[in-house]
Amino acid sequence: MATPATASSKDPLRGPAAPVPDGADLPRTAHQRESDDMAMLRAAVELTRDIAEAKPSLYWPDMLLSALVGYGALAGAIMLQNIPLAVVCGVIAVLALYRALLFIHELTHIHRDALPGFRVAWNLIVGIPLLTPSFMYEGVHTLHHARTRYGTADDPEYLPLALMKPWSLPTFVLVAMLAPPALILRCAVLVPLGVIIPPLRRVVWQRFSALSINPGFRRRPPEGEMKARVMWQETLASIWAIALVASVPLLGWKPLLVAMVILSGVAVFNQLRTLVAHLWENDGEPMTVTAQYLDSVNVPPPGILPELWAPVGLRYHALHHLLPSMPYHALPEAHRRLSAHLGHPSTYDRASHRGMIALVVRIGRSTMGSHR
Prior knowledge:
mainly alpha
């Protein structure tokens, strides 16, 4: 799929906006004390009004081509006898399916009428085949953006990883390898059993029906139109999961095992991105919008690799926290405008970082420093 165009962080009047050195800018809890930078918040809204519309001409081909490449490469990884070629196909499948899957993030933010049919198509093409229908994120991710929830015990997508023990970081990443078998167990066994065992159904919904990282999060029952959405997505996902298990006697173990390995790669890749999406330095206290922004991460150009590990606009994750409804294809231009308008140095600059490795090192040092 075509990668969305990115704007350079270099402004002809001001020069390049240099990232703040990782690990050398602020004390660990300083972000909690940040008052809101009203000039930045106003500029974020006023300078981007004209680019805030989701463009179907970009969403549809991007999602469809990503899925097509991903499934084609997955088929190659399963069928090819040449191991090196099969491995290459596997890597391509991981990257393409990862990109296709991350459109679930866009579904949680775009207006319900912005892209007619896109939600249903994404679920049928990507979400249900990968056993992650959109209801697992819709109604959950928006809690992470709630002003009074971010970084607290009520945030389903936050853990103070930078303040935890050093071994928590590799555990956090590697546990994602178990996602594919866990999803098959959930959809093929627990959900059907929940139909006849209501207490099990409640437990599955509360604890195993949300893409969250906070183990204390308990999901509330669906309401309104979400009930019907959950019903058809859950039903189709369960039928598909049962079909996958039933395919083993007919096709053997290889197709399912190769697919699970590739999807484990997707899950680990996403967990690594999640690890560096924030600085994870909040200890549970409510934060201002600016503090939430500074606890989040932008990895702007000129780097190219972030387009692989943080696609669909997620390399601008901090900016996304300022403008949650901004479509992914508009974030590069929004970043360019804000960088040029606010200048350097600025509060806006302070959320820019060099890349994944520098961020992992920063968080790792923080875990070791907090337990000396």
